[in-house]
Specification:
The protein has about 400 residues and is α+β, with helices and mostly antiparallel strands. It folds into three domains: about 15-175, no CATH class; about 185-260, Up-down Bundle (Single alpha-helices involved in coiled-coils or other helix-helix interfaces), CATH 1.20.5; about 265-395, Histidine kinase-like ATPase, C-terminal domain (Heat Shock Protein 90). The protein has twelve helices and six strands. It has a six-stranded mixed beta sheet, covered by helices on one side. Strand 2, helix 11 (about 300-320) and strand 3 (about 325-330) form a beta-alpha-beta unit. Helix 2 crosses helix 4, helix 2 packs across helix 5 and helix 2 (about 65-90) packs antiparallel against helix 6 (about 155-175). The radius of gyration is 33 Å and the shape is elongated.
Amino acid sequence: MTARIQVSHQRPDNDRPPPVRPALGAVAWKEIAHLLSNLPLALVGFVYTVSMVATAGGLSVTAIGLPLLAGGLLVSRQLGRLERARARALLGVRVDEPTPLPGPRAGGFFPWLWAGVKDPVAWRTVLYELVRMPWGVLTFTVALVGLLVLWPVLPYVSRWLSNVDRLMVRGLLSPSDELERRIAELESDRGVVVDTAAADMRRIERDLHDGAQARLVALAMGLGLAKEKLLEDPDSAAAMVDEAHGEVKLALQELRDLARGIHPAVLTDRGLDAALSSVASRCVVPVKVAVDLPERPAAAVEGIAYFTVSELLQNVSKHAGARGASVEVWRTGADGQPGARLSIRVSDDGRGGADAVGGSGLAGLAERLHAVDGAFVVDSPEGEGTVVTAALPWRGRG
């Protein structure tokens, strides 16, 4: 059984107009109204666009040039919104609204400025306004003449001209599918990262409260009693101190385990090879570890890879019923090149049947990798063991 995390996207309902008829019906009148309104709106949009580009371009060598261009493009976005609403009302074209740009308070002035200057939605609207000026003159003239002398063929002419308008709206005023998909995914992934971080903080707090903290409180109380008995009953005090010594060792071990769960020192000091070998040594079945990396990735990538393998090996220990397992880590592609990945494969010869959907631990692990633009695939046929392959974007320590 192979499980993948996928994002599905539904296309909007069919927005094609009904077949054209010789008689002028409601749809034909809406199309004619759209053609007649093309010229005045095209004139406003053309004058604004030319003035904005010329003014911002002329002032580009000054400090106000780029902010003026970003503000002008923001207004162009609103012109595009108006045109989408008009096309929706008169032509029946359903075009999704693009994702709003973040404000200057969200990430700072200069990131906002750069995002506004390179906004593809606004620049496509600029192109739309420039192209629509001559088209608006043509459609207005043809529609007006049609109302006067071409009445019998006007429904067919208006349909043909309106279809060109529909194409322009879809082609120039629609959001970029890939860009919008990535924005939506990243917004969703941000929520997953925040939830995961909050869950990890709660786990650490719980482990401290129920483990090391409770043991240290008991240790302090024991030492206090030993201090009181030190003079009147030295033997009992010595026994209590000896017991407290054992409690100290247990508290230290719990703190080490907790620190290892946050970020192991061996990973920081010696890298993935040593850290994964340490994890493998704690697995209940023999594990072969093979790490083939030309250099160390960024600390964040190392940490994600470490905890991914650690959780997968815990699953092997608890659920696989395996006699052995293996861990392989390697890099595909060159550092700095698009598509370079840190790849991980964890396999075992256990009972199989692992499920990476629903509320399982594998599903949560897949979500966390997906949140950092990673990939996660589980191949686990019943009775044939499990192979989990994961990939993370490679980021060198540069």
